[in-house]
Amino acid sequence: MDKALFQRDGDFFVPTPSSRSPWSPQHLHGGPVVGLMAHAMEKATNNERLNLARLTVDLLRPVPDAPLTVNTRLVRGGSRLQILEASLLAGDTKVARASALFLETSEQEVPDYGHFGPSEHRPPVEPVEQNISEAAGWTNQYSPEGLHSTAKAKLIDGVKAKGQGIAWMRLPVPVVEDVEASPDVMAAALCDFGNGVGQLSLGGGVGCINADATLYLHRRPVGEWLGLDARSRMQDSGIGLVETTLFDGQGPVGKVLQAIIPMRMPGAEG
Predict the structure, then answer these.
(1) Domains of the chain, with CATH numbers?
(2) Distance between CA 106 and CA 26 in Å, rounded?
(3) Strands of 105-211, DSSP E
(4) Taking a C-beta distance cutoff of 8 angstroms, is the pair 244, 30 a contact?
(5) Rg (alpha carbons) of the chain, rounded to whole number
(6) Chain centroid to CA 155: how far?
């Protein structure tokens, strides 16, 4: 197993095999891209009282397995709120863009009717060695190595490509080598799996691929395991949405939204 999803080489972030996509060995999984954007913008904030509240990443084109650079820009600074933008480049080509909202945290007494409620599930206590591909039975992979073979998983509700699934997941390596990832960055790196856990099969070897990911966090996840409860639906127009609730052992921590379109699954005939 690689030591991280990316290695740092000067201004470049160099992908390791653990960051590859199951759709093509020449491209990266969306999760490392989202995680890297979160890492870069978290490093660009200058207020430790601010936490990541929203991250939106547009996957403009397949991100190549090649050295990448990230440019960040502060759009709006403040003591209680900051907005940042980031661009991910492969050479001179912009392959993804992102915006992030950071909000100040404070201690508040919230009435019972305003709370999110406790968690319905408990994180695994026994060692889990299965990766998400093994746990979900994803066998038609173009790339044997990638985030799908790195992230560990325990299914709660089996992933049957019927548009819904629930799973515990953890990332056993940091996003960037020698940099401990915050819980928010780890959540960002795993949130793209909502479309995998809640994968919608349209029949005939056609599944769905997402063009973006928007992560909302109302608190930082606790513990090494992150739960994903994903639901996918599509209109006859061929445009759909994956909605994923993120949770830990204490309860919900956020939401993920992903826009999806049809895509022939890796290894499918026809």
Answers:
(1) 6-104+130-264 (2.40.160.210)
(2) 44
(3) 152-157, 164-170, 206-210
(4) no
(5) 18
(6) 17
User: In this structure, is the dihedral angle defined by the CA atoms of residues 180, 98, 54 and 228, taken in order, positive or negative?
Assistant: negative
pLDDT in tens, 165-209: 999 999 999 999 999 999 999 999 999 999 999 999 999 889 999
Q: Can you tell me the mean pLDDT for 92-121?
A: 91
Per-position DSSP letters for 32-97, written without gaps between them: HHHHHHHHHHHHH---TTEEEEEEEEEE-SPPBSS-BEEEEEEEE--SSEEEEEEEEEETTEEEEE
In the numeric block, the tokens 């969306």 are attached to: 30
- For residue 113, what are its two tokens? 């009717």
CB-count burial class (<10 Å; 0-12, 13-18, 19+) for 129:
exposed
Take residue 230 and report the two structure tokens written for it.
Answer: 């994903």
- Residue type at position 11: D
Identify any residues that bridge with 162 across adjacent strands, giving them in sequence order: 200
The position carrying tokens 């912009």 is 94
CA atoms in the 13 A half-sphere facing the CB of 169: 36
Q: d(Cα 222, Cα 260) in Å, to the nearest integer?
A: 29
Dihedral sign of CA atoms 216, 31, 235, 159 in order: negative
Contact status, residue 263 vs residue 207, Cβ threshold 8 Å: yes
Q: Yes or no: say if 199 and 231 are a contact pair by the CB < 8 Å rule.
A: no
